[in-house]
Amino acid sequence: MVGLGIDRLAGFDALFFPIGLIVGIIASLYLVIYRFGARR
After folding, report:
1. How does pLDDT run across 7-24, given as a tens digit for each residue?
2. Coil, strand or helix: which one is 1?
3. CA–CA distance from 28 to each of 11, 12, 16, 24, 34 (Å)?
4. Taking the model in full, what pTM does it have?
5. How far is residue 21's CA from residue 6's CA, in Å, rounded to a whole number?
6. What is the pLDDT of residue 39?
7. Whole-number Å distance between alpha carbons of 8 and 4
8. Which distant-in-sequence residues (6+ apart) come within 8 Å of 8 by Cβ?
9. Rounded CA gap, 40 and 25, in Å?
Protein backbone atom coordinates (compact mmCIF):
# COMPACT_ATOMS: atom_id res chain seq x y z
CA MET A 1 0.00 0.00 0.00
CA VAL A 2 2.95 2.32 0.58
CA GLY A 3 4.16 1.77 -2.98
CA LEU A 4 0.74 2.62 -4.36
CA GLY A 5 0.71 5.87 -2.38
CA ILE A 6 4.21 6.80 -3.58
CA ASP A 7 3.18 6.06 -7.17
CA ARG A 8 0.17 8.38 -6.89
CA LEU A 9 2.15 11.18 -5.25
CA ALA A 10 5.03 10.91 -7.72
CA GLY A 11 2.77 10.58 -10.75
CA PHE A 12 3.94 7.13 -11.85
CA ASP A 13 1.55 4.47 -13.04
CA ALA A 14 3.18 1.34 -11.67
CA LEU A 15 6.78 1.76 -10.55
CA PHE A 16 6.99 1.48 -6.77
CA PHE A 17 3.94 -0.76 -6.30
CA PRO A 18 5.54 -3.92 -7.77
CA ILE A 19 8.81 -3.16 -6.00
CA GLY A 20 6.93 -2.90 -2.71
CA LEU A 21 5.10 -6.14 -3.41
CA ILE A 22 8.36 -8.00 -3.99
CA VAL A 23 9.98 -6.52 -0.89
CA GLY A 24 6.89 -7.40 1.16
CA ILE A 25 6.87 -11.00 -0.04
CA ILE A 26 10.57 -11.40 0.74
CA ALA A 27 10.14 -9.87 4.19
CA SER A 28 7.15 -12.06 5.03
CA LEU A 29 8.95 -15.21 3.91
CA TYR A 30 11.97 -14.24 5.99
CA LEU A 31 9.81 -13.70 9.06
CA VAL A 32 8.01 -17.03 8.61
CA ILE A 33 11.28 -18.89 8.17
CA TYR A 34 12.78 -17.10 11.17
CA ARG A 35 9.72 -17.83 13.31
CA PHE A 36 9.18 -21.48 12.44
CA GLY A 37 12.59 -22.53 11.11
CA ALA A 38 14.84 -21.29 13.89
CA ARG A 39 15.86 -23.94 16.35
CA ARG A 40 16.04 -22.70 19.91
Report:
1. 888 887 777 778 888 888
2. coil
3. 28, 26, 18, 6, 10
4. 0.62
5. 13
6. 66
7. 6
8. none
9. 25
